[in-house]
Amino acid sequence: MTDLQTEKKLVLNYFNELDSCNIDSLSEVISKYTSEDFSMKCTHPFNELGSIDLVANNLWKPIKDSFSPIQRRLDIFYAGINSLDENKGKWISSMGHFMGVFNKTFIGLKPNYKSILLRFAEFYKVENNKITEGAIFLDVMNLMQQLGLSIIPESTGLVCVTPGPMNHKGLKFDISNQTESQKTLDLIHRMRDRLVKGSKMQSYKEELELDWHKDMIWWGPGGIGASYTIDGYQKGHTKPFQDGLEFVRFNGHILSSSEDDLGGWFGWPNLIMKPKGEYLGLTNASNIESEMRVVDLYRRNGDKLAENWIFIDHLHFLKKLGVDLLERAKFLNQ
Questions:
Q1: DSSP alpha helix (H) spans, the chain
Q2: For residue 164, which of 21, 122, 221, 299 sits 20 to 30 Å off, Cα-Cα?
Q3: Contact criterion met (CB below 8 Å) for 83 and 257
Q4: Which conformational region is residue 302 in: left (phi greater than 0), alpha (psi within -120 to 50 degrees), or beta?
Q5: What domains can be seen in the chain, in order of their start residue?
Q6: Pair type for strands 90-102 and 245-250
Q7: Beta bridge pairs of residue 126
Q8: What's the pLDDT tens digit per position in 154-210?
């Protein structure tokens, strides 16, 4: 089993140069670290970017231009082999916040000229010492909540700055124990199979207690918020989720990997759902199906899961249901 230290160093160097370069050098820096056919999957409104120049100009240029100065604050960083790709794909997973001063309009959102924290999860596949594909999830709905936009109803969970792992060991820069990594992967796959195959996205307390500590923390995305303990999780997330949405099908994930006590996945989309009532206070019952692009990152403590960080591309999901939050935000700015 490779230790993936070379892949970690490559992505860390990429982060350092990308974060420190000026806007005019973005394409050059990205080209230095990526393959010629490099592409990225991004949350709405960036979506799929199929070239280096598109990644530079449509994703990073708006971020660096709107939030200046800006810094990357990593809470999670780990490497793993993709268990869904015949155990061949080498991926780096990371999570944290971009901290910047919101000085210019960003995707139609009006600046407040204050410091902000833009929550992100980022994934890169490395082949032959080049980054060949990537994905980034930006929690834009959480940013909207920081701005106090009235188009976002009150969340059922806690709205806060999302911290990293409670044990402060989220940055796996060194070589990890592969036995511990496999324990984490086995546990999150067991939990996934119970949830998706057995319960059809219904979270029952007796099943949750098989895989989760009672004092679990569910760090939910913008629009939902965080919940503490199994009882709090059911009240703050699963009940509103199950009351408002009907499960249609599970599409699987693109990546599922782990290192030491951390692991997780992302999909594009993971779930197909349709509203059967109010979801986030923004939908009504309909037969329209929509795509839910989701990230789940986990921390294992012993033989159970202790923390879960979630990103949902709510802007994309809601737009397919006829609710365009960015257009509503533009209307507020008039």
A1: 5-20, 26-33, 52-54, 61-66, 140-146, 178-193, 205-211, 230-233, 239-244, 314-319, 325-333
A2: 21
A3: yes
A4: left
A5: 5-146 (3.10.450.50), 178-333 (3.10.450.50)
A6: unpaired
A7: 90, 131
A8: 999 999 999 999 999 999 999 999 999 999 999 999 999 988 876 567 778 888 999
